[in-house]
Each structure stands twice: as structure tokens, then as C-alpha cells.
Prior knowledge:
Helix content is 51%, strand content 7%. It contains six helices and four strands; from the N terminus they run ααααββαβαβ. α1 runs antiparallel to α5. Keywords: Cell membrane, Glycoprotein, Membrane, Signal, Transmembrane, Transmembrane helix.
Amino acid sequence: MGKCSGRCTLVAFCCLQLVAALERQIFDFLGYQWAPILANFLHIMAVILGIFGTVQYRSRYLILYAAWLVLWVGWNAFIICFYLEVGQLSQDRDFIMTFNTSLHRSWWMENGPGCLVTPVLNSRLALEDHHVISVTGCLLDYPYIEALSSALQIFLALTSSVALTPTDTRRPRRRRIYNCSLCTRRGSFCPAPIQLPRACWLD
Length: 203
């Protein structure tokens, strides 16, 4: 069996990135998280560009893909810090993920594993066109789910960058071989390459 080359490995990791990004995009759409939706869209485009550059030997596309991986790792590191409320970041005060347009939280807040959602009626904390809920019994709180999702994205990005390093973007050259037995008579002298018809060239 043939050994998988560096280009094959890079394409495989790009496909894993693409699947993970599409899965994340779905849940961000369900939670109206506009900032992650925009970032995921750009990431999907960059990964497709990386796959195309790998297959077609386009070094410029791979350079753009590598530059995006740096930004993508930084963005996911910020998401981890945001949901774990590192430093001065606070989910109750900062609505960065929705561009401060709504109070929506992560979709996993109400739909996490084992979560029981109970509406709080007649609450004074409820704003106009909003309702207050109580979420209990979650096996894993949504900040940790979002942090694990971002950690997975960082892992895939780093492994892709490692696979990107030894990738050769030089297009292999075709070797032309002359088969004199097909173009000349038996026992005759093989003519010079310039005299051979093009039908005698084997790629």
C-alpha cells in the first residue's frame, strides 16, 4: 500500500476542520451568535482555499490559509477566555457574541446534556419581549461545552499547521520516455528525439 504524503495528511486535517466548523456553525445559528457565525464562515472559506491550494499546488493560497490559522487560534482562545470569564470578561455584561444586538446566549445553555429548563413567571428581571428561565440539572454547563468546542478547533488548527510545514507545493514534472520499439523497425537505429513523432512520447 502507498504511503500517505504530506499533502494527503494536510487535506485530511482540512476536511476534519471543515466538518467541525460546519457543526459549530449550525449550533451558533441556533443560538443567534452572530460574531461566531461570521468567524465560522470565514474559517470555512479559508479551509476550502487551503484544500484547493494543496490539491492544485498553489503556494499563495496555502500562505493565506496559514495566516488565517494564526487568527483562528487567537479567536478561539478569546472564546475560551470569554466563556470561562477570564479577567474582566463577563457574559452578564458583555454581549460580544451577538454584537450587542440581543440578549441571546449559547444554544447549549438551554439544550445541554441533562438540562431542565423551567420558565420563571412574573419575574421583575424580564425585559420587554424577553422571558426569564431557570436551567438546572446540566451534566456539563454550556460555558465548558463552548470552551471544549474552541479547544477542539485550536487542536485541529495546530495539527493542520504542523502538516502544512513539510508540504511541497512544487508541481511534479512529467517525464517523457521514448519507446523506440514502437516507432522504429526491429534492429533499426532509434532516431533523435526531435525526429520522433509526438505519438511516440509516453507521459
